Amino acid sequence: MKPLTALIPAGFLLFTAALPAGYAGTDTLRVDRRQEKQQQRIEQGVRSGRLTSKEAQRLEAQQEKIRRMEDKAKADGVLTRKERVRLNRRQNQASRNIYRKKYNLRRQ
Questions:
Q1: What is the 3-state secondary structure of 9-27?
Q2: 51 — phi, psi (to 5°)?
Q3: Which of 25, 36, 50, 78 is 20 to 30 A removed from 69 (C-alpha atoms)?
Q4: Global pTM exceeds 0.70
Q5: How far apart are alpha carbons 53 and 43 in whole angstroms?
């Protein structure tokens, strides 16, 4: 019976070693996807002339701030629920800002 109990921890170690490195609680695929979509919305607004260059610069700066916030949150290897909620809240604010700037009747 002893050999079997010695194999269980070894099997667990092999299983966890096989997991992808990013699986340690820093999975931010949803955050990254949303960042990309918001970036596309800004670019589309510039192409269509709905965003002035100044508005686009401000929105880009806001997106960069969110990226830095995400990097800082992931730095310890774990993205907590609180950090995820905070990132989501910032992304919501950024989304509203993109909408407001695109439809504020200012044109280039």
A1: HHHHHHHHHHCCHHHCCCC
A2: -110, 135
A3: 50
A4: yes
A5: 11
pLDDT (tens digit per residue) in 52-94: 999 999 999 999 999 999 999 999 999 999 999 999 999 999 9
Scanning 49-80, the segments in alpha helix (DSSP H) are 53-74
Those residues with Cβ within 8 angstroms of residue 70's Cβ, 6 or more apart along the chain or in another chain: 28, 31, 35, 87
Task: Please report how the helices 29-48 and 81-102 are oriented relative to each other, as an axis angle in degrees rounded to 10.
Answer: 10
Non-local CB neighbours of 106 within 8 Å, separated by 6+ positions: 52, 55
In angstroms, the CA 49 to CA 21 distance is: 42
